[in-house]
TrEMBL record:
All residue ranges annotated as the ABC transporter domain in the record: 481-714
Protein name per Swiss-Prot or TrEMBL: ABC transporter domain-containing protein
Entry keyword set: ATP-binding, Membrane, Nucleotide-binding, Transmembrane, Transmembrane helix, Transport
Originating species: Tilletiopsis washingtonensis
Taxonomic superkingdom: Eukaryota
Composition bias type Basic and acidic residues, residue spans: 729-738
Amino acid sequence: MAVVSRLRPRIDAAKAEALSLAVRGGVAYRQNHVVIQRLLRFAYGAYIVLGTYKSLTPKPKKKKAPDAAVGAASSEREKAALAAAPPPEEEAAVGGRGKKKGKGRAPRVEVDAVFFARLRKLLHIVIPSLRSRESALLVGHTVFLVLRTMLSLYVADLDGRIVSALVRGQVRQFAMGILWWMAVAVPATYTNAMIEFLQSKIALSYRARLTEKVHDMYLSDTTYYKLGNLDDRIRNADQLIAVDVAKFSNSLAECYSNVSKPILDVLIYNYQLSRNVGAEGLILINLLVQGSAALLRALTPPFGQYAAEAQRLEGEFRWSHSRLIENSEEIAFYRGQITEKSSIERAYFSLIKHVNRVYRIRIGHGMIEEGIIKWLWGSLGLVICAIPVFAKIPGVKVGDMGSRTEAFVTNRRLLLSSSDAFGRVMYSYKEIAELAGYTARVSGLLDSMEEVKAGRFQKKLVSSASDPENAALLKSRGTIVESADIIFENVPIVTPAGEVLIKSMSFHVKPGMPTLILGPNGCGKSSLFRLLGELWPCLGGTIHKPKPSEIFYVPQRPYTSLGSLRDQLIYPITASEMRARGDTDEDLLELLRIVELADIVTRFDKGFDAQTDWNSSLSGGDKQRLALARLYYHRPRFAVLDECTSNMSLELEEKLYSHAAAIGTTVFSVSHRSSLWRYHTHCLAFTGEGSYTFGPLDAPKRLALQTERETLEHKLLAVPKMRARLESLKQAQKERISRPSSPVRRRA
């Protein structure tokens, strides 16, 4: 008690001092209220802007310590392989069946540094400069977004005045308010319509820019072939180009208005609210809102990853249908529709299962989101609107019932608009996460095409590729030199999967040396021509060859393009290029006469201008003859004929090969028909065991040997039958000898 009695004076003095400080602080606060309000508003605005920027800015990820195996890797080869390995984000972004991370789960697509790096790269494509059309559209879109916010402020004030006039019974003011309300509808509706229009135009411009860029990369340097045959990262490029580019463009255009407009609204509406109800209460309530928003964000599922996975499954489903269409004839012959149906339905149900899972996740997330944004924030808003009524705020006047009603309605409308804007900021994070998914897929397509164009492929290799000698061969690169002849100097024949068919091949073919290619299936005949056509990379040695336009390829199933009959004959050039070369339809008709297909001009209406589905309208033989007429039109220096006369008679075959020699085209023929041997002077034969032979072809001698061999084989086939017959005759003779003879009757 004595201690308390001694401390009592000090406690009373401290209380008096605190009370004095509070009084002086309150007086100073009232005297400097205007300055304090300005400082609080400025601080609040800076807090909103910096908080939004921080929430959308990627956070640097902590680098994991390297594994012991990685740290112990001493060879430069292992380190280079680790450095060249694609990051897991890129594997998830690719449109095909990318590798999984962990226990069968794909890496998350998040709003992180990788996303912003990809987005910056794509923005440089869709908005090439500040003077571009897209920049002008964005400026116009921004003007209308600001105009809509200004109109919303005016409507909020007008709404309060109309309700105030209604409460006070002021008919004239009420009628004028209604007239102004209707007048504001004209600019408001025009502004909303223009915002929608400009957003659609921006999305369309983005798509046009991006599609043009993708087409330039995809349809140059045979990237379209290499991407699907030499690389495993992109499984369904058609779906990425046709669907994902459009979704990315729409999402990017929407994100601009869905992020910038709500932030602007939050700043303007809350600034006006701070003038009406004071900045202190507004800041306090917003701190609570920010806390609940952080909780909501923490509970938000990875919708970006879900969007990327849904697009991947869509691509798989679409690819399965495309595969069915491409191979419909073969499948129909095999009656394989039941098996194909099972495969397609597996792809479809995988997609449906994922979509249903996302829908179920959205139920719980939607409940939490609406509960926080609509109901919790709505109740906090009512508290803000009630502040001027229950608490006296310096600078805020509270009058009669009409004034209170006007203030409440105006503040309530501003608060609802601000709450809606802040909610849209929160919703925008989900939209940005989905944009991250589309960005990952489109960026993955562009990155893969850049890698492919640079000759860097990622292909699943066969087990033999791990052999040190084969692995070194896969990493090497050869050279291609333009030449009048075709020369292979120590060139390996290797498939994209790493299977070494021939370790080193060398031969020399000059113009006028028609060469026959022989060998079993899978020995490397087609691989040789893919190297010759520069479809596959040269992994060693030197290839001397003419430029690609001087080497023509005629397959067993020729390609028919879209367009007229004239386009089929002159492909890949156009009709205007044909006329520039001085060629006429009469020249094309003469080529058709050579291949005995001149009746096709009268078979279809409009002659050379006829257009139809040529692939289904022509028979196999017609398409082969049409392809040879195309070969004769272009007159290449060399031509690869891959079983292209299999549906023709021997007489026509002789005529066509003779004409090819007459126009100066040296042929490489792949065929098992011995009738073609006499049209060739050299032979390149694959043994199928990693070796080959090349040399002159003596057709008469080889035909004689072939005839003798066939005769001997025919006789050898008869040997088992003759042996069986001999055995049966021996058996019959034995039975006759062992049978007892019957007694002979003598005549009397």
